[in-house]
Please model this.
Amino acid sequence: MGVEQKLGDMGIVTTKLEELVNWSRTNAMWPMLFGLACCAIEMMAAQASHFDMSRFGMELMRASPRQSDLMIVAGRVTRKMAPVLRLLYDQMPEPKWVIAMGDCASCGGVFNNYAVVQGVDEVVPVDVYVAGCPPRPEALIHGVVTLYEKVKGEKFKDLAKA
Amino acid sequence: MDKKVESIVQALQEKFGATLEEFRGEAHVFVRPEQIVDVLTLLRDTYKFELLSALTASDYWPQDAPRFHVIYQLSSLVENITMQIRVPVPAGGDQKPKVPTATGVYDLANWREREVADMFGIEFEGHPDPRRILMPVDWEGHPLRKDYPLGYEEPQFTFNFEDIDVRKPYAKE
Amino acid sequence: MAQIEEVNVDQFRHLVSERALTGETLLLNMGPQHPSTHGVLRVLLELDGETVVNAIPDIGYLHTGVEKNMEAKTYLKAEVMTDRLDYMNTTGNNLAYAMAVEKLVDLDVPPRAQAIRVILTELQRIASHLVWLGAFGLDLAAMSVFLYCFREREYILDILELCSGQRMMTTYIRPGGLWRDVPVEFETAVRDFLKMFPKRVDEYEALMTKNPILMDRLVGIGILDGATALSYGVTGPTLRASGVNWDLRKARPYMGYEQYDFNIPIRTEGDTFARYIVHIDEFRESMKIIEQALNKLPMGPVNSDNRKFVPPPRSEIGVSMEALIHHFKLWTEGFPAPKASVYSAVESPRGELGVYLEGDGGPKPHRVHMRTPSFDNLSVIGKICKGHLVADLVAILASIDIVLGDIDR
Model:
């Protein structure tokens, strides 16, 4: 965060620096393993050789939250699991992003009852929602590329305020 | 119904006073709660029912006596037959539903009875490890009872989007 | 939102040994988020150095309340939820539920639908065992097996997409038959798969079976004998690797399995290596069944004629008044079921998958209980892990083949 606060508005120098920082963030974003249910299998299929995700920079999945920047919440989050999810999100260092993969993570999905949290945005702030039950690996990759577009549009002044 | 199952059911009727109902070739035998451990021990040792396939329960609210039926589905590998034992459990007023535990007879009953106790509130006397298994430890209530609400949340369509959006507890950073 | 429960030793005092309370052994949490626990499973370990003294599993982190939710929907709409329980064996779950409904309302299934159901279930068995093999290899740090298995799995998912439009949660098998007939390219696709797959199985065997590192890690680990397994309710390949000859496809045949000629792989040692060999042999047996079913595939309708339970095809609705009325009643109200209960079981890749279905005279079920195999297969973990190292615990968990959606429902 130090770069953003010190630089502020320096015209063309800031723009070029923003582009460089955003480009480097998108090219090697490491996701954290948070596969809960059926969507996890499609996430594993997206990581395997047929729909390769490492051509987009996600070479490996880190199990530890301290070493990852992206959390893909794949699967249904239940009321027993929600505080664990929040704890893991808090343990990730900035900058961090969240993709809600699948219908159950976006809005509760097929399950509208006492045990499932209706949408994971009640627990963590979400950047991209990917729909599908389960979404095809191509849909997940489209969601990841949408996240990259969003990251490329980030400006220093927004980050410095946070 | 199979011939072997018929003879077993007759033996149970003589020894324990059990009643029988048949449906689509399956034999459902009703026994009382205090007899269940003896019945299961007899079936496992004498008639070779080694595998307890399923242990579950069913709620018949608002009927009070019996309110629950605990269902034991048994299989015999050697003779290749199945049978179902049902135990009607009354519960009403301040009388808590209780059944003696079957953990001494089949080890599988340990986790399955914890699940039934968690979901229905039936107490199994003598169980070595009575903790909640599927719901969080501090949860109140027993979800699969008929008087427990489903927890249905209204889905957001375009006509009520803003009303629900204001009330939804979104997470902060 | 509930707070995270503090681990209070009082909760587990009766399950851990006395050395834990004095601090001589370490209580370690192998938490819900872990790369090797196959889902959200929490295991509380009591460790003496690296050796496991006690292992207490804690489940419920994926409890979805499916049984209660199915009581609020009609019989046909509730089937959508059964796919999502054991998400590796989606067509098998549909089959178990459809068979229970057919038994309850006494519905017949034509032979063509039975043969196609068998082909799809056996294909799903191969797909499930492929994921098992991939995750097994990953847990033992053999990463290339994972990539090979998922490459094969894509062929099977393409076949499922050809029939139903969806890769995983198909809901293709419905009470009364199938959703609709298979397309023309189905037979060629399955035959191409059957030509290609046996050589791939030989590849996996060449990579893993005679590997000395694997044999060191797996032989003699996690021994489970037959009597303990039956008492704990273990079924499926785990039981067959302990020497007990019990497979529901041979003992109580359903869907025409008695016409097909296949063997049941059995081993007697009961350790992790035996479970691995049983899974590999099941690949070959499943391929035999698929080939025989495909050769004998009869012609005919794929749905029962009983319009009170099975919706009529769209072409009939424009022509016949009764078909229109049946269609209307089925989609708005649903069909009524008698006030009785049935239990019907199939053999899933993990064991005995049973459905206890109780109707109450109306269109919605009174009680649906799914007897899932992974619940009982996991309960035996506390007994067979004592005295092994933590790395062996990971290998044993991988070989028992649990799916958390099955356990927590």
Remarks:
- The mean pLDDT of chain B is 84.
- Residues 3-167 of chain B form a domain with the Beta Polymerase; domain 2 fold (CATH 3.30.460.80).
- The longest helix of chain B spans residues 3-16.
